[in-house]
Write a structure and sequence with these properties.
Elements: E1 3-5, H1 8-19, H2 27-43, H3 45-56, H4 69-78, H5 81-99, E2 106-109, E3 114-122, E4 125-129, H6 138-151, E5 155-159, H7 170-179, E6 183-185, H8 189-198, E7 208-210, H9 215-224, E8 229-230, E9 238-243, H10 249-260, E10 267-272, H11 275-288, H12 295-305, E11 306-310, H13 314-324, E12 328-332, H14 336-340, E13 348-351, H15 357-362, E14 388-396, H16 398-402, H17 405-414, H18 418-425, H19 429-432
Parallel strand pairs: 1-11, 4-5, 4-7, 5-6, 7-8, 9-10, 9-12, 10-11, 12-13
Antiparallel strand pairs: 2-3, 3-14
Length: 433
């Protein structure tokens, strides 16, 4: 990680680096994932047992693949009571935030005999994927299940890889139960995505899959999109901090490192108008590193995708931030709310020096499942809207249609769709004679 002058050239180089991490950059993995999906789609449970033994070194069968009531009870016995207390407090905030997103069906009836509207319907069954691997993320469990439950989804299932003991991490199980999951399966990786997309003898087919995972999971979600819905194709974690000379370098450095510890491919970027702040943040980072347990991961992240840019103006800094379209954006300036009005592209925006990104990860309430890899230009955070579908309602009385039928027929004929025009015309053909 080095300090650089923000120029068109350095910005372009940085954006190119970030785009290289996208899910479309791994054709060999895509081929492997396609094979896994095909085998699960054709062989069902048998393929899941084989892949779980191959990748997770655990032998499963139809009787052990689903987490049982006894295993749930054991998980509660093993989870620290303080963690459970905090988890329940966080759930209150997460649920309250998402309840404000709930939409209602509506109907607009007019005097001319037309009724238009929109019908909101929750999805019937959704699947949540929760990764294993380097770390355990009960917070992601809450963030995926709560909006689905608030939306009114009938059934929520969860897939997550088992540990070598054949069990799911206790905090993951407890978080899922607290959030309102219906069933939990001990299956991970691309094979879990395939199972939820196509269904097997044990795992039911779902309508939509949400939740983050490694590159194999991301590629699997990409492959099954269209068979089922997905939230997005998650990439490595990202944070961008936009700061001026008033920012606290100690805080800025700590926040950059909070995301770099996720993954060697995570990105941590500071864009500032202050040369002094840039230097101070760099020194603070060096001071923090020896104290952090995931130092090796952080150093790889900073070496590959860490940047400190010094911009000439705040306008240049904002323009760069919008080009990055970061998953997380912190604004630490003298007037953060004013600066925020210029932000077009960011998954979540944190305002002021006491709104550190982990506040959003764990407790504040807004969803932390966010668009990555620049997709904040067109994607939004996971929300209740991801677990509903909207049907439009159309009713015209005879008189209402009669008043406009010539216009519709004319439009259809202009597109050379005479059957369309005829579908309208036949309703009035006797009256036209």
């Amino acid at each position: 990680m080095k300090i650089e002058k923000l120029t068109a050239s350095t910005k372009e180089k940085m954006l190119k680096e970030l785009s290289s991490r996208s899910a479309g950059s791994y054709p060999e993995i895509e081929k492997t994932v396609a094979g896994i999906i095909g085998k699960v789609a054709s062989d069902g449970d048998r393929a899941l047992f084989e892949y779980t033994e191959q990748f997770d070194h655990v032998r499963l069968n139809a009787g052990t693949m689903e987490v049982t009531k006894d295993e749930i009870k054991e998980a509660y016995d093993q989870v620290d009571s303080e963690l459970l207390r905090v988890m329940r407090r966080a759930l209150v905030n997460i649920r309250a935030y998402h309840e404000k997103q709930v939409r209602q069906s509506w109907i607009d009836a007019r005097e001319d005999g037309t009724i238009l509207g929109q019908k909101i319907t929750p999805l019937r069954r959704c699947g949540v994927y929760v990764p294993g691997g380097r770390a355990v993320y009960p917070s992601s469990v809450l963030m995926n299940i709560v909006p689905a439950r608030v939306a009114g989804v009938n059934e929520i299932i969860m897939c997550t890889p088992p540990g070598k003991d054949g069990r799911v991490t206790p905090s993951t199980v407890v978080a899922a139960v607290e959030a309102g999951v219906d069933r939990i399966f001990k299956v991970g990786g691309a094979q879990a995505i395939a199972a939820m997309a196509y269904g097997t003898e044990s795992i039911p087919k779902v309508d939509k899959i949400t939740g983050p995972g490694n590159i194999f999971v991301a590629m699997a979600k990409k492959a099954v999109y269209g068979i089922v819905g997905i939230d997005s194709i998650a990439g490595p974690s990202e944070i961008t901090v936009l700061a001026d000379e008033t920012a606290n370098a100690h805080f800025v450095a700590a926040d950059l490192l909070s995301q770099a510890e996720h993954d060697p491919m995570a990105s941590a970027i500071l864009v500032t108008t202050s040369e002094k702040l840039a230097q101070d943040v760099y020194q603070e980072i060096q001071g923090f590193l020896p104290k952090l347990s995931r130092r090796e991961i952080i150093e790889k992240s900073l070496e590959g995708y860490g940047h400190i840019f010094v911009a000439d103006t705040l306008e240049d800094a904002v323009e760069t931030v919008n080009a990055v379209a970061s998953e997380h954006l912190e604004i630490m300036t003298a007037h953060p709310f004013e600066v925020m009005t210029g932000i077009r592209n960011a998954g979540a925006i944190f305002l002021g020096e006491y709104s550190s990104e982990p506040l959003g990860d764990y407790f504040a309430g807004p969803n932390h499942v966010l668009p990555t890899s620049g997709t904040a230009r067109f994607f939004s955070p996971l929300s209740v809207d991801d677990f509903i579908k909207k049907s439009s309602l159309v009713y015209y009385s005879k008189n209402a249609l009669k008043a406009v039928h010539k216009d519709i027929e004319s439009f259809a004929k202009a597109e050379q769709l005479t059957a369309h025009a005829n579908s309208i015309a036949v309703r009035f053909e006797k009256e036209e004679e």
